[in-house]
Design a protein that fits this description.
heterodimer, A: about 150 residues, mainly alpha, 5 helices, about 50% helix, disordered N terminus, disordered C terminus, B: about 160 residues, mainly beta, 4-stranded antiparallel beta sheet, about 0% helix, globular
Amino acid sequence: MTKNPKEQHTKKTIRDQRFDEPLYVDGEVTHEPETYLAEKPYELSEFEFSVLRKGQFKSNIWFELVFGATIGFVLNIAGKTLSALIQKETPSVDKWELWSIGVGIVLALLLRFRKRNSDEKEFNEIKDYINQHFKTSLRRRVHIPRKEEE
Amino acid sequence: MNINSLPLQYKPFKEIEIGTNKLIDGEVLFSLNDNVPLLIGMGCIPHVWLSIPADAKGESWQLLVRDNKALHPKVIVKIEDDSVTVNTPDGTVLKVVAESQNLARIAYIDLRPFGIDIHGNDTSLTVMNNNLTGNVFSGAKIMIGIDSEKKMSKKDVEPTS
């Protein structure tokens, strides 16, 4: 016997009862919540996660250290020059100071643009795949539905 | 979130009150075909996980809020002294208050914008056209299971109209 459509939407009341097991009711998803589904998430595999988990590579850390030290040295010289100017003296920069800055810049550039090892290549590849996924993944039409009147 | 693979960080409150109904020593409030839309984790401030259907049939689901962090730019999670409120362009969808270390109270819930017919406040709870008040669920893993095929329930329910 098919269920009367009116019965399906009959409001039922469950009041002041005690349950020691789940209460099961009829129902299902009423609609797809388009507003809140911007794009499909990237399906990250365990292998890809293990590669991404390696995170910072030593050469990147060295680049940051060398570059930071070079900038620090430049600031040091700038401070020395400023102090001399304020005291109306002629600022002087030693040759070794200029050489140090030059070496720092060259070393930083070498570390920044050196050939990547296979781990880093894999890491960057996966990052590119994820970036590509979110750029090309179909975006749903975002709309704000009117609030239903109670 | 599937009922069989809940987040490891999730520890349920001993008691959750929702629309004058109580879940005591339970694990989750609702399950929709083995998918769990809402988790309220124990803490001085409740920990909320909110998951929504990613398709019209509810076959795949997507996290919208993970441990009080919104995963969508239109969703705002507001944390105050002992409460967590989830706001969306459709209005407030959830407000949970930690009454004590063991008790959480859901002051407001409305999951209808997400295609899940569950809504309620401090006085009653409505789940898929079933109005619940003053019920106690003790020791049940799930308080209310929503299925497209209705399973047998221990108690008879009286229709109001």
